[in-house]
Amino acid sequence: MQNQNPFFEDLSRMMSSMAGTMAGAGREAETRMREKFREMMGGMDMVSREEFEAVKTLASEARAEIEALKAEIESLRTSTPTAAQPARTPRAKAQKIDIS
Fold first, then answer.
1. pLDDT tens string for the chain (100 positions)?
2. Which of 6, 19, 45, 91 is most buried, by CB atoms within 10 Å?
3. Taking every pair of C-alpha atoms in the chain, what is the biggest distance, in angstroms?
4. Over the stretch 57-81, which tens digit does the pLDDT of each residue have?
5. Rounded CA gap, 91 and 85, in Å?
C-alpha cells in the first residue's frame, strides 16, 4: 500500500508546470532581446560581414595594382636618360624702332 499525500502530488505537478512555463518565458525573452539588438544595430549603419569582405578584397586588389603601377613608373624613369626637358627656344630680340 502506497501512502501518497495529495499535497506533495499537487506540488510536484505545479513544479513541473512551472519549469515548462519558465523555459518558454526564457525563450521568449531571448527572442525579444535578439529583435531589440537587431533593431538597435540597424540604426547604426553597420555593414554585413559579406559586404566588408567584398570591400576588403577590392582594396587589396587596388593596392596590388598601385604597387605594379609604381614599379612601372620607376622602370620608365630609369630606362630613359635624365628627364629630358624641352629645349628653350631663344627669344627673338625686339627690334629698336627709330622714331626720330
1. 456 788 888 888 888 888 888 888 889 999 999 999 888 877 777 788 999 999 999 999 999 999 999 999 999 999 876 555 666 776 767 677 777 6
2. 19
3. 153
4. 999 999 999 999 999 999 999 987 6
5. 17
DSSP 54: H
Residues 6+ apart with CB under 8 A from 55: 47
Q: What is the CA radius of gyration of the chain?
A: 42
87 vs 19, 78, 83, 92, CA distance in Å? 95, 21, 12, 15
Left if phi > 0, otherwise alpha if psi is -120 to 50, otherwise beta: which for 95? beta
